[in-house]
Specification:
By secondary structure, the chain is α/β, with parallel strands linked by helices. The protein contains 26 helices and 13 strands. It has 4 domains: about 110 residues, no CATH class; about 140 residues; about 220 residues, no CATH class; about 40 residues, no CATH class.
Length: about 600
C-alpha cells in the first residue's frame, strides 16, 4: 500500500472514530440535560421544605444557573477550537497528500521516458517526495549550513607572504600551452609559475590550447586580468607577454624545444625538470611545454615553491572585468535581498562586490541562502567513466561513438585489455552521481523543499529531461541560464571556459556547496577556495561515492528513515576538518603551512 493510501486510510479511521464517540458539542448537550434533571429534583425539595427559606433557595438556583452557563460557554468555545484544529489538521494532511501525489505524478511522467532512471530509483524518489512534503514545515538539521567552526577557523590565509629575492629568469624563456577546460588550465598556470622559478626562466604569459571537447578559443586575458597577474608575481618571477623577436622567428620544433605532455610523466618531481628540461633551455634559450597540465607533483617540493603555487591560485589569478561584473549580477539574483556582500565576494568579483546588494530592499525580506550543486554529468565525464546510467542500448551506442572520437586511447584500451564492468565500477564509487542520486542525497541530508539551489555545469547528459526529478522535488532550482538574460550571456556564448568562470563564482560564494564528483577540478578548486577565504563558515558537502553506492544498491528495499541515517552518516564523516594529506592537491586542501598558517 502506498504512503498516500495509508494517509487517506488513517484520515478515514479518525473520522469514523469521532463519529462513534460523538463530537464535543454532543458531549456538551448531554452534560447540560443531565444537570437540568438534577436541578428539577432540587426545586421539588425546596417546595416541600416550605417558603421560609425560599429566597435563599432562589439565590442558590440563580447561582447554579450562572455556573452552568459559564461551563456551557467554556465547552462551546472548546468545541469550536477543537473543530477548527481538526479541520486544520485535515487540511494539512490533505495538503500533504496532494503535494506528494503531485510530485509522484510528475515523476511518473518522467518515468515514461525510454532512457529514464525512474525504473532504478522510482521507489526512492517517491519516498523522498513524501518526506519532503511531510517535512516542509520542519526545521533543517542544525549542521546543514555550517562547518565545524572552531577547528575550521584555526587556519588563516598566508600564501601572500614571501621570503626570497626576485628571480631574474636569466636562463631563458618558458612557453606553456595548457590543455583542458578552465579549471585544468588554472592548475597548469600555477604549475608553470612554479617551474619558471625552479628553472630560473622568464615565463611567457601562458597560452590555452583549443580543445575539440571544449571548443573554446579563449586565451589568458579573456579569463584573467593579465596585468594584475604579471605585477602581482613580479617579486617572484619575471613574466612577459611575448617572446623576444629573435626567438619568435625560430622553428621551436625543429630545434628540439617542443616538449609534449607525452614526454613528461604525470605529476613529475622537480628533479625531472632540472634533469630533462633545463638543459634544453640552456641550449636553445627557450622551451615550449605543449599540452601542459597536471605535470608537477605536489610532494616532494620545496616549501617556498609550494607556497608560490598557492599564491598564484588564491591571489594572482583574478577574473577579467567582464566576468567579475556578470558574476556580481549572478550573485545579486541568487541572494536577492542581501544587506551586505558575502565573505568571498571581494576575492571573486573585486570592485563589483557592492553591486551584489540591491539598492532597493524589501525591509521585511531576508537574504536568500542558497546551495550550489555541481552536477558533473556532462557527456565527456559520463563517457570517460565507462559506467552505465540506465539508458540501455541506445546510451551504450552513443557513448561508444563519443569515446571513439574524443577518447581514442580509451577505446583502444577497451578492445585490448579486460576492464572492470560498469557494475564493478559503480560499487567502487568510480561513477559520477546521476541527477537522481544527487537529489536523493540532498533530500536525505535534510534540505527542505524550499531550498534555493544553483546548479552549475555545462550541458547535462540527457538534457532537461534528466533534471526532471531534481526540478520536481526542488522547485526553487536555477542555473546561470535562468538567472541571466540572453543579452547578458551573449558575450560568453561559445566560450565554455568563461561560462565555467561564472559557475566558479556562483559555487564559491554559495552558503553551502555540494559536489557530486570529488575528483572534478571545479569541485576541488571551489572547495579549496572556500576553505582558504571562508574563515570556517563555508561548508562543503563531499560525498564518499563508494559508501553512497553501497547505500543506493539497496534502493529497492531500504526504508526512508534508514536511508536518511546512512546518507547523513556517510556525508558527515567527510565534513571533518583535516590538514592536507601527503601528495594531495594544495588547491583542494590548502590547510597546510605552505598555504595557510595556524592561528594558535
Amino acid at each position: 500500500m502506498s504512503s498516500n493510501q495509508l494517509l487517506l486510510l488513517e484520515s478515514d479511521k479518525e473520522h469514523d472514530s469521532r463519529s462513534r464517540k460523538g463530537s464535543p458539542r454532543l458531549h456538551s448537550s448531554r452534560f447540560a440535560n443531565s444537570n437540568d434533571h438534577l436541578l428539577g429534583l432540587k426545586l421539588k425539595k425546596v417546595k416541600r421544605k416550605g417558603c421560609g427559606r425560599a429566597w435563599y433557595q432562589r439565590k442558590r438556583v440563580k447561582s447554579f444557573f450562572g455556573v452552568i452557563g459559564l461551563v456551557g460557554f467554556f465547552l462551546l468555545v472548546n468545541w469550536v477550537m477543537l473543530s477548527s484544529l481538526q479541520d486544520h489538521g485535515q487540511q494539512q494532511k490533505l495538503s500533504l497528500v496532494n503535494s506528494s501525489i503531485s510530485v509522484k505524478n510528475e515523476l511518473k511522467k518522467f518515468g515514461k521516458g525510454k532512457r529514464s532512471q525512474f525504473g532504478v530509483y522510482g521507489r526512492m524518489l517517491a519516498l523522498a517526495a513524501h518526506a519532503l512534503a511531510e517535512g516542509q514545515n520542519r526545521r533543517e538539521p542544525k549542521d546543514l549550513w555550517k562547518e565545524p567552526v572552531i577547528p575550521a577557523s584555526a587556519w588563516r590565509p598566508c600564501a601572500d607572504q614571501r621570503n626570497w629575492e626576485t628571480n631574474g629568469g636569466h636562463n631563458g624563456y618558458l612557453v606553456v600551452t595548457a590543455n583542458g577546460g578552465m579549471n585544468q588550465q588554472r592548475v597548469a598556470v600555477c604549475n608553470a609559475v612554479v617551474l619558471a622559478r625552479l628553472l630560473n626562466t622568464t615565463l611567457v604569459v601562458p597560452r590555452f590550447m583549443y580543445s575539440s571537447v571544449w571548443r573554446d578559443v579563449s586565451q589568458f586575458s579573456d579569463i584573467y586580468q593579465e596585468e594584475y597577474f604579471i605585477n602581482y608575481l613580479s617579486p617572484d618571477i619575471r613574466i612577459v607577454k611575448e617572446l623576444p623577436n629573435e626567438l619568435l622567428s625560430l622553428d621551436l620544433e625543429a630545434i628540439g624545444s617542443v616538449v609534449t605532455d607525452i614526454d613528461i610523466p604525470k605529476e613529475s618531481k622537480p628533479s625531472f625538470y632540472l634533469k630533462n628540461i633545463l638543459p634544453i633551455i640552456l641550449r636553445n634559450r627557450v622551451v615550449h611545454l605543449l599540452g601542459f597540465g597536471n605535470r608537477l607533483a605536489f610532494d616532494p617540493i620545496p616549501f617556498q615553491l609550494q607556497r608560490l603555487r598557492c599564491r598564484c591560485n588564491f591571489h594572482a589569478l583574478q577574473f577579467a572585468p567582464k566576468i567579475q561584473q556578470t558574476g556580481a549580477l549572478l550573485l545579486q539574483r541568487l541572494r536577492k535581498y542581501a544587506a551586505k556582500p558575502g565573505p568571498l565576494d571581494n576575492y571573486l568579483v573585486g570592485p563589483h562586490k557592492d553591486s551584489v546588494i540591491k539598492e532597493k530592499r524589501v525591509q521585511s525580506a531576508k537574504a536568500s541562502k542558497y546551495l550550489a550543486l555541481h552536477l558533473r554529468f556532462e557527456i565527456d565525464m559520463v563517457a570517460h567513466s565507462l559506467c552505465e546510467f540506465g539508458g540501455g542500448e541506445q546510451e551504450r551506442r552513443e557513448l561508444e561513438v563519443f569515446r571513439e572520437i574524443h577518447f581514442p586511447a580509451l577505446t583502444l584500451l577497451k578492445k585490448t585489455a579486460k576492464l572492470p564492468s560498469p557494475a564493478e565500477l559503480r560499487s567502487e564509487g568510480l561513477c559520477p552521481l546521476t541527477p537522481e542520486e544527487s537529489v536523493l542525497m540532498l533530500a536525505a541530508l535534510g534540505f527542505n523543499r524550499k531550498t534555493h539551489i544553483y546548479v552549475a555545469g555545462a550541458q547535462i547528459y540527457g538534457g532537461a529531461q534528466r533534471l526532471t526529478a531534481l526540478n520536481t522535488l526542488y522547485p526553487y532550482l536555477v542555473t546561470k541560464e535562468n538567472l541571466l538574460s540572453a543579452a547578458e550571456l551573449e558575450p560568453f556564448k561559445n566560450f565554455s571556459s568563461q561560462l565555467a568562470a561564472l559557475d566558479f563564482i556562483g559555487c564559491t560564494a554559495a552558503d553551502a556547496f555540494a559536489m557530486t564528483d570529488s575528483g572534478s577540478q571545479l569541485s576541488s578548486l571551489v572547495s579549496g577556495y572556500r576553505i582558504y577565504y571562508g574563515g570556517g563558515k563555508m561548508p562543503t558537502i563531499r560525498p564518499n561515492k563508494r559508501r553512497l553506492a553501497a547505500i543506493f544498491m539497496k534502493n529497492s528495499t531500504i526504508e526512508w528513515k534508514v536511508f536518511e541515517q546512512r546518507i547523513r552518516k556517510a556525508v558527515r564523516q567527510t565534513k571533518h576538518v583535516q590538514t592536507r594529506p601527503k601528495a594531495r592537491s594544495v588547491y583542494r586542501y590548502p590547510r597546510c603551512k605552505e598555504c595557510m598558517c595556524p592561528t594558535t
